[in-house]
Amino acid sequence: MSAATLKRVRKICLELPEAVEKEAWGGPTFRVKKMFAMYVDDHHGDGRNALWIKSTADDQDVLVDSDSERFFVPPYVGKNGWVGVRLEKDRVDWEEVAELVEDGYRLIAPRRLVERLDEE
Question: Domain of 21?
Answer without folding.
Answer: 3-119
